[in-house]
User: Fold these one by one.
Assistant:
Number 1:
Amino acid sequence: MNERTHDRIAEARLLFDCERLTLARRLRGLRKNQLAQAVGTTPTAIGQYEAGVHRPSERSLSRLAIALGVPVEFFHAGRSPVTLDSAHAHFRSLRSTTQIERDQALAYGRIAADIVGALEDLVEFPPAELPEHPVQPDEIAGPGPAEAARLARKELLGGEPGPVPHMVRLLEKSGVIVLILPPSTERVDAFSIGAHPRPMVMFNPAKADYWRNRFDGAHELGHLVMHADAEPGSKVIEDQAHRFAAEFLMPEAEIAAELPATADWSRLAALKATWGVSMAALLFRARTLGIMKEATYRNAMSAMAARGWRRREPGPSRPLEAPTMLTGALELTAGSGVGRDALAERARVTRADLDLLVPGRPRPSVPVRGDDPPVPPPD
């Protein structure tokens, strides 16, 4: 080990932030015993490092950095810590995922917060201005989810009737950070974080379905609008967010007269294309509004399952509504001389993690003569 590396590790040990070690371990989806095995120590020692009881030696610190795929500087104390845990996040179902999986998804949320913090030193984001219409679990007093959705539509869409043109763009325009989680978190469904300098919505990386992603976005918006003080994870809270999303994307006053009372597939396909929601969502909406009888709804859903439409509905696909706010901010900073490497260093994240969370825009292909496939432009 040369003198410069030795000094760097010694400095990192002096500035060691135990919470950054926990963050890095969760980011890689590791348990304490798995990390301990990777660096040749014990789970107890890892626990003591993370609790701040002991600081790792220079050798242990170097091994931790290598095992976790981060530079030793990652463990430095720095920006004011942003605490993200399950108490702040609205996960769909706490039973369908493990704590390790949820911790990993939240760790990426924390990394995203560091990236946003570094970017906000350089560029101006839209102000975080979301309406707040708290809905109580018992819904005895105050607005219910449908009324909260109607109020939110009026405030966010300016009272414009009709379909929501672009759900992700609407969230970003309101100052919400929207990200698609890395592939390693594919078991974690979309979730939102409200208790944060900026609210966040994190989308599932495996759900490549335009129609369902839009409903997910409206569902998470419902949490941000209604549930700032609610305890996440309950069936009641999730049901309220579903009802909010249904009214937000398919307002009763506008769509009720268009919904069929029977499984009219051509009619449902036309409504799907117009309103940007799945046929399954339209059937459920018809049922909940009392337009379609329960038996008719169940038969329709059985027919969809038999035809394989529960997995993939018929009709042309559409590209997902992609978040662009952070990508655009990175392009602005690059234009002013702060590229991705420099931004990653400012945020104290790895370049690889930055690229996972905020991928660059795909470069256009250049057509060539004949029938040859398009090739990317030269670097």
Number 2:
Amino acid sequence: MVWWEVPVAAAGGLLLVWGGLLLVLWRTRPPDLTVHEALRLLPDLVRLVRRLAADRSLPRRVRWRLWALLAYLLSPVDLVPDVVPVLGYADDVVVVALALRSVVRSAGADRLRRAWPGSPAGLAVVLRLAGLPAG
């Protein structure tokens, strides 16, 4: 075995895992939500996640998920780099949607509504991201 085969095989394996994660993210995205619509809400989403993560009445596992989501959103390292047109931000939208759905299942939609810092139209988009009816 040549010395470079192991690093090349490891890199190939990581690329396959990364590709699989991208496929899962793409398949679980909200079907009627545009990336542009969700990206406009990013500042309000960050405030929402911070408020929910600081809420001591939520279960600890939910708060940990929210802190992890906040770290992911603020981190320069993403599953798809943000310099990639459209897909660079689409992975953030899908990760937020999955996390919000998890929080709503554990904490309830009312907490999400009470903690929302933005406009009612923005809340409707966030509720769609979380898999809930906007009304």
Number 3:
Amino acid sequence: DNVTVYDSELNGEFLGWHSRGLRLVNCHISGEQPLCYAKDLVLENCTFDPECDRAFEYSTLQADIRGHIKSIKNPTSGKIVADSIGEVIIDKNIKQPADCQILTR
């Protein structure tokens, strides 16, 4: 709860799951299915490893991603901005309010 991480490389499958108030600044993220089930997640000027996939499932977030992110799955609400996005997966299991804005620069 309520942790801020600066200028770090974070690697791990299921990284940050069920976190609340996690803020990542200038971080590089790798691993499968990172940052899912997170509440009030903030990413500022972060990058993702090319193999990092299915990020942000059921998360509420504000994310500024530099570079490419391979895939985003079922984010709940907030805003995600990236330079490019490989795929966005929205399926019948998405949780309400299901109003996350996903944008590319």
Number 4:
Amino acid sequence: MDTTRRRHLNSWQPGRQPWELKSSTNVELAFRDLASNDYLGLSRHPAVVEAAATALKTDGLGAGGSRLITGTRPRHMRLEAELGDWLGRERVLLFPSGFQANLAAVAALAGRHTTVLADRLVHHSLLVGVRACGAQLQRFVHNDLQDLERRLRALHSSDTLPLVISESLFSMEGTSPNLQDMASLCAQHGAQLLVDEAHGLGVLGPGGRGLCWGINDPIHLISGTFGKAFGSGGAFLAGDAVMGERLLQTSGAFRYTTALAPPLVAGAQAALNLIKAYPTWGRSLRQRSNDWRTSLSLNGWVRPKGNGPVLPLLFESDRAALDQQKRLKEHGLLSIAIRPPTVPEGTSRLRIVLRRDLPDDTLQLLLRALVS
């Protein structure tokens, strides 16, 4: 690691950049952010910011064209190659957004003769992709492999392989499926598997590589984003060489859109360098998250499920969730009440998000605010 990057790492002080809101009197109010998906706090890391600023000066703000015309820069190809190596995938393609990547992934794996079996709580973008390609949709019970297996067994054999869709970390639940068993089940029944790792990358799995890392049974496509733990923006799809070529040649979502902006590519590259240089960051954040779960349960709250940095606290009504959001705000904590239709009826919640750069006393502030 060069001395400039080391200086950036050593000078970065976690918790020094509070989230700011403008009040009605135009006075800046600082809040500790328990709402965003910047899990590792990299969006303000000096190395990430400097990399993006340098790319802005050298490459300009926008790419200026699609990847197959003038939009591709050497930095696009470098990031794709290094991501592929890091994830153990043969081909990676960058997309301007996670929504766009998920549309492309579903379209590449399914058509109007395909049955798609999707976890009941998958992201909206994946469901839009299913509708857009005309596939037949079934929803299996959240993280329930028995229900998934029952549905796979009930499918009539055809020339079109079914598609199973899940996520590695469900952003509103904080839960994760057993992806190894899911992949084995799909292989047993001849089903394709698409996993959205948007919220898992950088946090879950060895070195933050996500829960798909090390699974031997085929996972046909991995979708990931740079707008969460990577602190940048944009997204990617990762698969084998054949799938990569199929996307390159046929995916309108890739071919007919302006390429990912060079500063965002540079920021994502810098974040990847940091995550590789500090492979225990994700594990440390998971441990801290579980410490928070234990403290919440000891203070009378139902222990949030999962072991990642998303800790939902459920309430009986929308009003109760909104009231609790207001109380946290009065204590200088930002957490947003999530209500239907984003989550199912009767499950309104505060989505507490633990970030690596939160000061050590944040948990005690949260507990005081929750019981006040």
